[in-house]
Amino acid sequence: MLFKNTPEKFWNLIASKYAASPISDRTAYETKIQKIKSHLTNESRVLDIGCATGTQCGGIAGEVKQVTGIDISSKLLTIAEQRMAERKLGNIEFFQTTVFDERFKSGSFDVVTAFYVLHFFEDIDSVFNRIHDLLKPGGLFISETACLGERNIVMARLLRFAGQLGFLPLTNLLTTQKLEHALDKAGFTIIDKTKFSKSSYAEFTLFARKPE
Question: pLDDT tens across 147-186, in order?
Fold first, then answer.
């Protein structure tokens, strides 16, 4: 099966295995969630791009007015909906779509999050411009991205080649520097840059503000 033009099939295929995988560094995750909560209010409307099984949506739902989770995988979203129903979290909605969905209007969200999904976009500039547009003035964009361009470059290129052939979703070999440059180009100001895990494979979590 090839996934170059239908990456949702890949995520549907591995949805059950993904859902069963534990959080690799629970302490780092909890610390990150607490940091994110410090930027939220009970009036915040949040968009989570690539929400998968909704773990982080559920983690912040109690602090905000509304969380909208989006993903391209119908099976991951089914799991997310089941988990949120079990927890009786009524202020979370899920859609099988992308950030470019025209139903999302300019200035709709106070916070946009994207965790380990940006490296699946080829045109990161268009993504950041879209997120900038979706945020209210003064809104916050929080991201954590697999920066494969900073890892074993041979393995990273093999992963990208596999994506180009269609055996895996296409992967962008991003670096932290490229992300920071793209955020600046889109009009964001980075207000915080933190590694929550001590793992050598940990990525930076970037907090970027849209001007008032």
Answer: 988 877 777 788 888 778 888 888 999 999 999 999 999 9
Write the pLDDT tens digit of every residue in 63-111: 999 999 999 999 999 999 999 999 999 999 999 999 999 999 999 999 9
pLDDT cut 70: percent of the chain above it: 99
pLDDT exceeds cutoff 90 at 57: yes
Backbone torsion region of residue 24, taken as left when φ is above 0, otherwise alpha when ψ lies between -120 and 50, otherwise beta = alpha
Residue-wise DSSP of the chain: ---SS-HHHHHHHTHHHHHHSPPS-HHHHHHHHHHHHTT--TT-EEEEET-TT-HHHHHHGGGSSEEEEEES-HHHHHHHHHHHHHTT-TTEEEEES-TT-TTSPTT-EEEEEEES-GGG-S-HHHHHHHHHHHEEEEEEEEEE---GGGS-HHHHHHHHHHHHHTSS-------HHHHHHHHHHHT-EEEEEE----STT--PEEEEEPP-
Amino acid in position 206:
L
Burial of 60 (0-12, 13-18, 19+ CB in 10 A): buried
Instruction: Kindly write down the DSSP assignment for every residue of 133-157, as one continuous string.
Output: HHEEEEEEEEEE---GGGS-HHHHH
Sketch the domain layout of the chain as residue ranges.
7-16+26-209
Report domain 7-16+26-209's class.
alpha beta
